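Lab manual, section 2.4: Encoding a predicted structure.

Procedure: take the sequence of the chain (473 residues), apply the prediction step described in section 2.3, and record the output as structure tokens. A sample record is shown.
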Amino acid sequence: MFKGAIAILGVFLFSLGCAAHVATQSPSTPPVQVPVPQPVLLPHLTVSDISLNEAGEIEVMLSNTGKGAAPYGVGSLAIYVDGLLKWKDSLGALPDQSFLAPGGAALYTTPVELVGRHDVRAVLDEGEKIVDEKRVSNVFPKVLGKGESDGKPVPRGLRISDLFLDTRRKLSVTLTNVGDSAFPLRAVTLRIFVDGLPGASYPMGDLSDQPFLAPEGNLTLTTPLTLAGRHEILARIDFTSEAKVPDKEESSLKRILAGPSAGPDIIVRDLDLTEDFELMIILSNSGETDLRKGAIFQIKVFVNDQRISEFDHFISEGMKANFGNRYVVAPPYRVEITGISRVKVSISPELPSYDIRLENNSLEKTFVILPFRLGPRGGEEFNFSVSPPAAQGEGHAGKVKAEARCEGGSSTLMLSFRLSGSSGEGLTFSGRSPLKAEFPIPVEELQKESVWSVLVTNPSGKKVQGHLIVRHP
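Recorded output:
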């Protein structure tokens, strides 16, 4: 019986395994059907035309030549007149949105009105926020309006973009070329009006040596016009016939500019030496009003970066405006200069009304003092170097001053200067002692350290001795 039960259990397990095997069989899975991708339809928003209506307002024709709809409220429309932005708004703010549909179009009247003839640009979706089929038609330029210059070339885009006063209270004008080609500056005259009255007129060649202004380029010009107080300034550029603008089309900019009040402007004009090689300080008043007697200035003297003297000076006589006189200050304690010395003098007023401009209140000079002893018709050569100068006041940078002094008489001397490595003849000065000479340093030499040689010559038949004094920035 036990064996029979074993047999029955074996048959049962065999049947169960077969059933399980049958259950795991399944018919073959049919292939998955991948959907065919649909093409992405993109919009193509364009400005198809711009025009003027009877009221002189700019109208813009917008259209969508793409195969897809453009999204609502995305992008913008802007109008530029003569390169300047006049109006800009979101596309979602336009009343007729039919131009968003594929093949749709809408005419929109902008609030921009024109008088005369102008270069107009309509710029669609300036921020590039729309995924577009192509972007070649999103800027539409056109000359609109009527004027004497109909059918003739228009200005190539020169405009006044800024007016301001520099630190010297001189009027500065920034020009911008918003055209697509270089503009000849020689074809322009700058006219300035102050409080409605003609102030000055400057041919561009008097203000800049630059012949052309490149497209999208800027040029800032400083005029000789100095302003004090608050004024209305109108700057205008007139185009000559060279600019091919027969009707003298103008570009102008008006600003209210406030310069500092008129007053004395005291500068350290020069540094010199007495016969005993003691420092002398020369002051002048470059301002528009006199400085009264009794004003007090603090004066500091540095030699080779060491402060040698500091004192308060009482102005003993008035200093006339516009460089009317030279005022000499001798330090109360003698400051003797010897050898090669770098001398700096700075001044500061006790009261602000004594000096309205403080940027030009210091001056640095290098003194080179060399003794010479010359036989009859003899000479001696010296060398000195000039380093690139720091910023100096007006009229100071780039000059060398020299003086040859003989002891005990006014003998005739000659000074010959030559730049090291130069093939030229150099500069020669002659005259009786004290012989003084002055000459500018070439601009290209101011950017680097240069070495100069100076030959002191005694053309007389007797011995002379003395000192050579060289001053340079």
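Check your result against the sample. The first strand starts at residue 45 and ends at 52.
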